Hints:
Blueprint: H1 14-26, H2 33-46, H3 50-55, E1 58-62, H4 65-75, E2 83-87, H5 92-100, E3 104-108, H6 119-125, E4 130-133, H7 145-155, E5 158-162, E6 170-171, E7 174-175, E8 183-187, E9 200-204, H8 207-217, H9 225-230, H10 251-281, E10 287-288, E11 305-309, H11 317-326, H12 342-348, H13 356-364, E12 365-368, H14 376-390
Parallel strand pairs: 2-3, 2-4, 4-5, 5-8
Antiparallel strand pairs: 1-9, 6-7, 8-9, 10-11, 11-12
Bound molecules: pyridoxal-5'-phosphate.
Amino acid sequence: MTDFIPFALPDIGEAEIEAVVATMRSGWLTTGPNAAALEREFVEALAPTRHVREATVQGVAVNSATAGLHLVLEALGIGPGDEVIVPTWTFTATAEVVRYLGATPVLVDVHPDTLNIDLDRAAEAVTPRTKAVMPVHFAGLPVARAELAEFASAYGLRVVEDAAHSHPVDSEGMPVGLGASDAVVFSFYATKTMTSGEGGMIVSADSDLVTRMRTMRLHGISRDVFSRYTSTAPSWHYEVVAPGFKYNLTDVAAAMARVQLTRSVAMRERRSAIAARYDDVLAGLPVRLPSRPAHPQTHHAWHLYVLRLTEDASMGRDEFIQRMSDAGVGTSVHFIPLHHHPYWRDLRGPDAAPLPVADAQFQCAVSIPIFSSMSDQQVERVGETVRAVLEGRA
Ligand SMILES: *Cc1c(COP(=O)(O)O)cnc(C)c1O
């Protein structure tokens, strides 16, 4: 048998390796010049003009998207008694950060086409305690921007976008990261669309929010380590103004991310080409292919390529996964809906509203490999293997 094709692999080249090694040789390993440069460059890559960028948008580098989501909610003042609307079709990180602050995530159902939050269901979930909504741009397909802004303003909610799957993409002509939301959080986890091993970036145009997040990112110290050691104030002096966290990004990780950032559009285009090939190869099989953006100026990041087996398939999702694995192709499931996990099920209690779309889609959803370092040969083999399994030949 030919080599196993893993479900996901990072796309790391010599330039990333050299940047990391150079940082290791530099004598500065923790948050420093690379992290500061990454914050600047990340925002520069998003912002269409220098004017917009300097007037408003700032980046806050963190050691994970989870940390970033937590920092945003903390800075927004989310706390006990508050409710935050979260789609059930996400990774547990999106909801767990709400619990860190003693608030309650209210899980809502998703739209069967996009698997993104269904804003009609979200509207039904709003109560006087609802403070914020956390949409997830699932798989890299942005939530419709105009509808999201309309929903949030109708109910007076803060918006924190979980953009862990969606860099770099435009949504209705404007990059995810800019726009009306309070903050947008990206992930640099090893399998995401750009990586620093572990890491993340918060982007926000609210300077008060950014100031609070920068302080809470590093122990509630009012200036970060780098400026502490390089400014003209006495280097030993600092002030603790809050019980903060330890969420800063190392310069070793930032060095890797800076190189990945320069490649991020090319890596997205490679994934787009893979998705287009899968669409062709899998046409006519008993599978529902991923939704395409409805708006002509919206990209798909193609972090995931999620198939839904239809009623006509001769096997269920679990058997499909087993046969794919036997034939040498890794797959995964995104996501086990949060309300299927014991912690979230117990928290919601026995009388919680049903989430029937997520329940049904979970039965048939399966993610096949899509990463920018896949060879054409691997892409062909994945397509052919899906075809063979569904046609009963493997
Ligand atoms: C990966 C992921 C996160 C968490 O990202 P980390 O950087 O690993 O903390 C959050 N939300 C979603 C939807 C994710 O897929």
